[in-house]
C-alpha cells in the first residue's frame, strides 16, 4: 500500500506542470521573511489581485479595476492600461485640479460618463512600471541619493541628475535620516519621482487609478467630495508590505561572454552614470531589506531627457523634460507581462530596447551617440546584457 | 440562535432526503419499482429531465430519484499544489408526479459542494395539449446548448463539467418562466423544439470579481427566482433533430436585455442585450460504439465602450468528448459492465477582439485536454479516473498559468 501511494505521489509530480525558475518570474518574496511576514505578503498578494466592482467601490470613473491590471505578473503595463495625467506644465502646480486632475479617469462603470480631458490641458501618457524590488529602493537613505546627484553638473560630464524635492501628504511616515529642504522631502516613486514612499504611491493609485477611497486618500474622484473609505486601512498596509517585500528581479546568464561584454559596453558608453548599477539600503524595519547592496540600475534622480521625451507636462517640481531614471532590473522579463512585446519608455512608445535607446535625448544624448558608434555585434552584446537583467 | 435553527433545518432536510432513498432501497423488493430510463431511443437532449431512472413506490403517485457525485483530486498550478482533497460535488434529488392525465410535475433539488450551494434547479409543471404542443411553467432549464439540458453526472465520463458549458455558458442555468415544447418523429427521424420566456441575467455578467464577461455570475442572483431585474423577459429556444442512425443536432438561442436600465421609474442606463448562439451534437458509431458529444457557443454582449475592455463583448467556446468502450461484458458479476477510454477537448475565449489602444488581439483564453478512463458496472453508475491539463492566458496573451489535476471519483443514480 505504501509502495502504491509513493508511486502515485511520485507519478503525480511527474505529470504536473513544473514550477517556473525563480529567475524567470518577477513575483515571489524576498528571502529571509519571517512566517508572520510571509502571511502578510500573501494577504497583500491577494489584495493586489482583488478585482473591484461597482458593488465594492470601483469608480464610478476609473482607469483599471485591479492593481494587477496595470502590473500583470508584477511587471510593466501595456498601452491597454495606459493612463493620462494632465494639468501641470511647470513647477507652479496643477492648474486643472478643479477639472479632475491630476489623472484622467477615462473609463466608467455602466451608466456613467468617463472624465474628458479639459481643453488646453497639458498632458502626458504613462504606462505602469514593474513593481518588483521596490522595498530596496524605498529603503535607500536620502544621503545616498544626494551623493549621486550633481544638479549643477560640477563634474562636467554633461549629466546633472537631481533629487525631486516635493511636498508630501501628512499621512506618510518619514524614513530614517530623511533630509528635508524648505519643507519639502526627497521623493522617489512614480515616473517623475513625485511620490514619497510606497504608501503614498499605493493610496494614490487606489484613488486615481481605481476610484477607490481610503483613509489616506478620502476624496472621491467623481464627486470631488470626501466619502467613506472603500478599502480598508489594513488592506492598504498589506499591499504596501507586499510591494516592499517583492523580490528584486534575478539576473540571468551572467556568465555568458556576450553578456559580460555588453556589461562592459554599458559602462563604457556611460549608461551606468544614470542607470547606477548598485545601491545600498539603510535601516528598514523589515530586516531582510536592511543594509543590503542591490542592483537596480537606477539612480532615482530626475534627468533632463531633452525634447524627445518632453510631453509638456510635469509633476511636483520636476520639469516637463525631466524623468526619473527607470530601474533596468527585470527589463528582460518585461515581455512576459506585456504579451510578448516590449512597450518601453514612460508611455510604452518604444517597441524594442534599440528604439528606447534612440529615444534618449538631453543628458543621455552623448550615450546615445556612443551607442550609435558601436558595431552591430557590440550593440547586440549590449542588448543581450540589458535583457539579462 | 437563528443561524443554528437555520443550519439544523438544512441538516434535517438533507438527512430526510438521504434517508428516503436508503429506505426505498432496503424495501425495494416489496414496495419499490425501479423505472429504468427510456430505451426506445426516441429521446433528445430536451427529454433528459425526465429521461432518468426513478424509484416508484407502489400506489404512491410520486417517483423519486437522484444522483451523487464525489471524487478525490490532486491538482497543481505552475508547480504549486495544495495536495490531495476530497470533494462532494453534487447530491441531486428529483421527484416527479403524474398529477392527472397529461399533467405532470418534476422537481430537482441540488446540493453542491456539500451544502455550500443549495438550489432548485428545476421545478415545473407540464401540460400536454398535443404531442407537438406542451406547456411548461415554473423553474425551467433554459434550453441553451445540450449540456445545460442533459447534465446529470452519471451520464458523463468526466468529473469536471466542460468549461464551455459552465465557465462561459452558465450551466446549469434555470429560471422562472413559461414556455412551450413539442416533439415528433417520423421513420428514423425525431425532431423537437422548446421556447421559453423567463427571467434572466443582470449587470453582474460584466461587473464581477472574475474580471471577465462571465454569464455564470448571474447565477449568484437568487432574486431572479422572485423578479426580473429589468422587466424584460429572456427568450430562449431550441430546435433539435435526430436520426437514430446518425445522431442528434441542436441549434439554440438565448437572448435579451440583461442590465438594469430603469430604477424607480428613472432611466439610468441604455438597454443592453446579450445574445447566445449554440450548436450541439451527439452521435454514436454503431460498429465501434464510439460516442461523440460536443457543443460550441458564441456570445455577443453589449458592453459600453466607455467601460474597461477587460470585459469582452464577444466570446466563443467549444468542447468535444470522445468515448470509446474497450470492454463491454460481464465483469465481476456485473452484467453489461463496460470499461471505456475517453478524451475531452475544451476551449474558451472569454474575450474575442482587439485592444482599442494597440489594435493587438485580446487573450483571456483557456485550452484544456482531459484523457479519462471510466468503468461502468451498470449504465447508471460510473467510476472515473481523469487527468486534466489546461493552459490559461491573460488578456495580454501572457501565459497566466498551467494547471493539471488528477481526479478519481464516481457518480451514480440511485
Describe the overall structure.
The complex is a heterodimer of chains A (389) and B (414). Chain A is of the alpha+beta class and 389 residues long. Chain A has two domains: 35-245, no CATH class; 257-313 and 321-388, Cytochrome Bc1 Complex, Chain D, domain 2 (Orthogonal Bundle). Helices cover 29% and strands 8% of the residues of chain A. Chain A has twelve helices and eleven strands. In chain A, strands 3-2-5 form a three-stranded antiparallel β-sheet, with no helix packed on it. A two-stranded antiparallel ribbon of chain A has the order 1-4. A two-stranded antiparallel sheet of chain A has the order 6-7. In chain A, helix 2 packs across helix 7 (233-245), helix 6 crosses helix 7 (233-245) and helix 8 packs across helix 12 (376-388). Chain A is globular. The model of chain A has no long low-confidence stretch (mean pLDDT 93). Chain B is mainly beta. The model of chain B is unreliable at 1-29 (pLDDT under 50). Chain B has three helices and 20 strands. Chain B has one domain (2-413): Porin. In chain B, the strands form two sheets. Chain B has a 16-stranded antiparallel barrel with strand order 3-4-5-6-7-8-9-10-11-14-15-16-17-18-19-20. Chain B has a two-stranded antiparallel ribbon with strand order 12-13. The chains are: A alpha+beta (389), B mainly beta (414). Chain A binds chain B through residues 12, 15-20, 50-51, 53-56, 62, 64-66, 69, 72-73, 78-80, 82, 107-114, 336-341, and chain B through 74, 76-81, 203-204, 206-211, 259, 268-269, 272, 304, 306-310, 355, 357-358, 360, 363, 387, 389, 394-399, 402-404, 406.
- Dominant shape of chain B: globular
Radius of gyration of chain B: 22 Å
Q: What class do helices, strands and sheet pairing of chain A give?
A: alpha+beta
Q: Summarize the main sheet of chain A.
A: 3 strands, antiparallel
Mean pLDDT of chain B: 89
The stretches of 5 or more residues of chain B where confidence is low (pLDDT under 50) are 1-29
Amino- and carboxy-terminal Cα gap of chain B: 35 Å
Q: Summarize the main sheet of chain B.
A: 16 strands, antiparallel, barrel
Strand order of the largest sheet of chain A: 3-2-5
Amino acid at each position: 500500500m505504501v509502495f502504491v501511494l509513493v508511486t502515485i505521489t511520485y507519478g503525480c509530480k511527474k505529470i504536473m506542470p513544473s514550477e517556473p525558475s525563480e529567475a524567470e518570474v518577477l513575483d515571489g518574496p524576498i528571502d529571509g521573511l519571517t512566517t508572520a511576514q510571509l502571511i502578510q505578503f500573501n494577504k497583500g498578494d491577494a489584495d493586489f489581485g482583488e478585482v473591484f466592482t461597482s458593488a465594492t467601490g470601483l469608480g464610478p470613473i476609473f482607469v483599471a479595476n485591479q492593481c494587477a491590471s496595470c502590473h500583470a505578473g508584477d511587471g510593466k503595463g501595456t498601452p491597454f492600461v495606459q493612463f493620462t495625467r494632465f494639468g501641470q506644465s511647470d513647477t507652479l502646480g496643477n492648474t486643472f485640479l478643479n477639472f479632475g486632475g491630476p489623472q484622467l479617469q477615462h473609463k466608467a462603470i455602466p451608466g456613467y460618463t468617463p472624465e474628458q480631458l479639459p481643453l488646453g490641458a497639458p498632458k502626458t501618457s504613462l504606462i505602469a512600471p514593474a513593481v518588483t524590488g521596490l522595498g530596496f529602493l524605498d529603503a535607500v537613505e536620502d544621503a545616498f541619493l544626494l551623493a549621486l546627484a550633481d544638479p549643477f553638473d560640477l563634474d562636467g560630464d554633461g549629466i546633472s541628475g537631481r533629487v525631486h524635492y516635493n511636498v508630501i501628504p501628512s499621512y506618510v511616515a518619514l524614513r530614517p535620516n530623511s533630509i528635508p529642504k524648505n519643507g519639502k522631502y526627497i521623493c522617489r516613486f512614480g515616473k517623475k519621482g513625485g511620490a514619497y514612499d510606497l504608501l503614498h504611491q499605493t493610496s494614490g493609485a487606489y484613488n486615481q487609478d481605481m476610484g477607490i477611497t481610503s483613509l489616506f486618500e478620502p476624496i472621491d474622484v467623481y464627486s470631488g467630495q470626501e466619502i467613506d473609505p472603500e478599502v480598508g486601512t489594513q488592506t492598504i498596509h498589506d499591499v504596501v508590505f507586499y510591494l516592499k517585500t517583492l523580490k528584486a528581479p534575478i539576473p540571468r546568464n551572467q556568465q555568458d561572454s556576450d553578456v559580460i561584454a555588453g556589461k562592459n559596453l554599458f559602462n563604457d558608453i556611460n549608461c551606468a552614470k544614470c542607470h547606477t548599477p548598485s545601491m545600498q539600503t539603510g535601516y528598514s524595519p523589515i530586516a531582510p531589506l536592511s543594509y543590503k547592496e542591490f542592483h537596480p540600475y537606477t539612480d532615482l534622480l530626475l534627468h533632463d531627457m531633452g525634447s524627445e521625451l518632453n510631453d509638456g507636462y510635469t509633476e511636483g517640481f520636476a520639469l516637463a523634460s525631466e524623468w526619473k531614471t527607470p530601474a533596468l532590473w527585470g527589463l528582460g522579463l518585461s515581455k512576459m507581462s506585456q504579451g510578448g512585446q516590449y512597450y518601453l519608455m514612460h508611455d510604452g512608445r518604444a517597441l524594442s530596447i534599440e528604439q528606447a535607446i534612440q529615444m534618449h535625448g538631453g543628458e543621455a544624448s552623448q550615450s546615445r551617440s556612443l551607442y550609435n558608434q558601436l558595431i552591430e555585434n557590440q550593440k547586440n552584446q549590449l542588448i543581450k546584457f540589458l535583457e539579462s537583467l | 440562535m437563528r443561524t443554528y435553527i437555520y443550519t439544523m433545518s438544512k441538516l434535517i432536510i438533507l438527512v430526510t432526503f438521504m434517508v428516503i432513498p436508503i429506505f426505498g432501497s432496503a424495501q425495494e423488493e416489496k414496495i419499490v419499482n425501479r423505472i429504468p430510463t427510456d430505451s426506445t431511443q426516441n429521446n433528445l437532449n430536451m427529454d433528459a429531465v425526465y429521461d432518468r431512472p426513478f424509484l416508484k413506490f407502489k400506489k404512491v403517485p410520486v417517483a423519486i430519484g437522484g444522483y451523487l457525485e464525489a471524487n478525490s483530486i490532486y491538482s497543481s498550478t505552475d508547480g504549486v499544489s495544495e495536495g490531495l482533497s476530497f470533494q462532494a460535488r453534487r447530491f441531486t434529488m428529483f421527484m416527479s408526479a403524474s398529477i392527472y392525465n397529461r399533467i405532470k410535475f418534476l422537481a430537482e433539488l441540488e446540493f453542491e459542494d456539500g451544502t455550500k450551494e443549495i438550489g432548485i434547479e428545476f421545478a415545473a409543471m407540464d401540460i400536454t395539449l398535443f404531442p407537438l404542443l406542451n406547456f411548461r411553467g415554473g423553474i425551467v432549464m433554459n434550453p441553451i446548448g445540450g449540456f445545460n439540458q442533459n447534465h446529470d453526472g452519471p451520464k458523463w465520463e468526466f468529473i469536471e463539467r466542460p468549461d464551455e458549458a459552465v465557465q462561459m455558458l452558465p450551466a446549469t442555468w434555470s429560471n422562472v418562466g413559461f414556455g412551450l415544447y413539442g416533439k415528433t418523429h417520423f421513420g428514423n427521424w425525431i425532431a423537437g423544439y422548446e421556447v421559453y420566456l423567463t427571467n434572466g441575467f443582470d449587470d453582474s455578467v460584466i461587473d464581477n470579481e472574475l474580471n471577465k464577461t462571465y454569464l455564470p455570475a448571474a447565477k449568484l442572483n437568487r432574486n431572479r427566482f422572485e423578479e426580473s431585474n429589468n422587466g424584460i423577459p429572456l427568450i430562449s429556444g431550441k430546435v433539435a433533430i435526430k436520426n437514430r442512425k446518425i445522431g442528434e443536432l441542436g441549434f439554440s438561442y438565448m437572448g435579451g436585455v440583461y442590465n438594469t436600465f430603469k430604477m424607480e421609474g428613472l432611466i439610468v442606463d441604455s438597454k443592453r442585450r446579450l445574445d447566445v448562439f449554440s450548436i450541439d451534437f451527439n452521435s454514436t458509431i454503431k460498429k465501434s460504439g464510439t460516442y461523440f458529444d460536443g457543443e460550441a457557443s458564441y456570445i455577443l454582449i453589449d458592453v459600453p465602450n466607455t467601460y474597461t475592455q477587460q470585459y469582452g463583448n464577444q466570446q466563443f467556446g467549444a468542447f468535444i468528448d470522445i468515448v470509446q468502450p474497450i470492454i463491454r461484458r460481464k465483469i465481476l458479476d456485473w452484467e453489461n459492465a463496460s470499461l471505456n477510454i475517453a478524451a475531452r477537448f475544451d476551449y474558451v475565449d472569454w474575450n474575442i477582439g482587439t485592444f482599442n489602444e494597440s489594435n493587438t488581439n485580446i487573450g483571456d483564453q483557456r485550452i484544456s485536454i482531459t484523457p479519462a478512463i471510466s468503468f461502468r458496472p451498470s449504465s447508471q453508475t460510473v467510476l472515473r479516473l481523469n487527468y486534466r491539463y489546461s493552459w490559461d492566458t491573460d488578456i495580454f496573451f501572457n501565459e497566466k498559468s498551467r494547471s493539471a489535476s488528477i481526479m478519481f471519483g464516481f457518480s451514480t443514480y440511485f
